[in-house]
Amino acid sequence: MKTRSRTNRFITGVTAVCALAIATTASAAKDVELQMVDDQLTIISKPGANGCGFFSSRDKGCIKFKKNESKSEIYFHLKGDTKCGLESGTNWELNAVYLGGFDYENEPKKDGFGFDSTDDADFNKVDSDFDIVDRTSGLVTLVEESDKKIAINNNNKYNYEVWYNIEAVCKRADGGDDHVSSSDPRVKNGGAE
Q1: Is residue 6 part of a domain?
Q2: Residue 85: DSSP 8-state
Q3: Closest C-alpha to 105, from 73, 58, 72
Q4: From 109's CA, which of 1, 24, 77, 184 has a CA 20 to 30 Å away?
């Protein structure tokens, strides 16, 4: 009787350890929270919320994937009031994510996003991880899209850093060109190399 009880406890313990191991290695989505402040797209996620450090102004929106961390989605959420105060503006909506600046120490200039100046081998790493729609602009394929939430995949196969530019647009009631606001922290991939 005692042997069966010990065996049952042992099996229960092993099952619990296995479940914990699976849970800690399973894909955990990363979330970046954004808000419109004076018609400017602002990151409101706490510094360090997605695995980066706490000491840099850029780390507020930084997203870090550890080495061998499994594939994950990155969600961008627009919180709060989205009313657009610009000329003939309606509401702000999340629109797109662009990548650029492969292993750059500093953010690329606004017109420096994309991968035209990145060699093919490095571009292929980013494309394999993020599914780039357009190499010149760095536009990433969205896997989920609504006015206040968009998402992209990250396969985290390769080790590098890349900057992202999240874009929101405000359509105009008068039919003029959309107003655009963006914010651009970075993604640090640990990869599986």
Answers
A1: no
A2: -
A3: 58
A4: 77
User: Is 40 inside a domain boundary?
Assistant: yes
DSSP string, 42-60: EE-SPTTTTSS-SSSGGGG
Q: Answer yes or no: are the C-beta atoms of 153 and 143 closer than 8 Å.
A: yes
pLDDT in tens, the chain (193 residues): 555 555 555 444 433 333 333 333 445 899 999 999 999 999 998 877 888 876 554 567 889 999 999 899 999 999 999 999 999 999 999 999 999 999 988 888 766 789 999 999 999 999 999 999 999 999 999 999 999 999 999 999 999 999 999 999 999 999 999 999 988 777 888 887 6
Range of the domain at 120: 28-189
Q: How deeply is 6 buried, as exposed, middle or buried, from its count of CB atoms within 10 A (0-12, 13-18, 19+)?
A: exposed
CB 79 within 8 A of CB 44: yes
Give the pTM: 0.81
